[in-house]
Amino acid sequence: MGKAEAIVERLRAAVASTGGEVGGFAGLYPLDDERLLAATTDGVGTKLMLSRRAGRLFDAGRDLAAHCVNDVLTTGADPLFFLDYVASDSLDLQEVADLVEGAAAVCREAGCAILGGETAELPGIYREGELDFAGTCVGLVRRRDLIDGKRCKPGDVVVGLSSTGLHTNGFTLIRQLMGDGEFDADLLLAPHKLYVDEIRELRAGADVKALAHVTGGGILGNLPRVLPKGVGVDIDWDSWERPAVYRWLKEQGVSEEDQRRVFNVGVGMCAVVPESDAAAGTVIGRLV
Question: 33: which residues sit within 8 A by CB, 6+ positions away?
Fold first, then answer.
């Protein structure tokens, strides 16, 4: 079990004591008998350090909003609003503006309002030149439209939605590989893909039983989070084409095993559908 999973397990009882429940990618809160709120919080992680070096903080803002909105989408919810938090040892107005404007661009695409946020200067907590950016997204889903994975069963197929590259995970390893030198920002920092339109199109033509946002931990670290106990998955790792950055990782000596464990390897969202709906997209595996 990884550190993040261990923390979740440790805190599960505390969360339950408040009447809440830890979800696969977003927590759910009942508004009434028909509707639930779906909420999630996340950050950009150490990718932000490279984005800052490359002068691409607008794209880092896109990364954050897309990551949070995608998590909400896994429940079947429509995103409603987004809040952000920027912290540094000493805030730079232009950097903050770039981050928030990037997030706003994604929120407009998703039909999601930004209601506000918080900025904080915390010298002594953050070292000089450090910057952090986190956000929260809240969506709404009707119970009849809820996607929770409970109907998944062996024989269902896994449809993969392509990623733009690394998205926002695995950058501690990336920074170790590249050191302090120059780097190909187009290759390494492609913005995190927003899946609103693809998921809506998929749901219009197929019975989507589960959705898994492929983030840290790769496909096998995320898809099982939305499957019933006792249901496994068999992935055909050669069934899709990977972005060029994964060839670069191989050239840097990152093994196939480690790529699958850390990165999305070209699939940023997985959907589970019945075998009868296999024609709805690129099938990358099946449940067993």
Answer: 143
Closest by alpha carbon to 68, among 6, 1, 139? 139
CB atoms within 10 A of CB 244: 13
Main-chain phi, psi angles of 28, to 5 degrees: -115, 140
Per-residue pLDDT reduced to its tens digit, 125-181: 998 888 999 999 999 999 999 999 999 999 999 999 999 999 999 999 999 998 888
Distance CA 232, CA 207 (A): 19
**Could you give the C-alpha distances from 179 to 69, 126, 172, 245, 263, in angstroms and in order?**
31, 21, 11, 17, 19
Query: Could you tell me the strand order of the sheet in which 233-235 lies?
Result: 210-213, 267-273, 157-162, 282-287, 233-235
Q: Strands across the sheet with 131-142, in order?
A: 27-30, 35-43, 131-142, 78-88, 113-121
Q: What are the beta bridge partners of residue 88? A: 121, 131
Helix axes 57-73, 93-110, angle to 10 degrees: 40
d(CA 257, CA 221): 13
CA 282, chain centre distance (Å):
20
Q: pLDDT-derived band of residue 284, with 50, 70 and 90 as boundaries? A: very high
CA distance 192 to 195: 10
pTM of the shown model: 0.94
Q: How far apart are CA 287 and CA 153, in angstroms?
A: 7
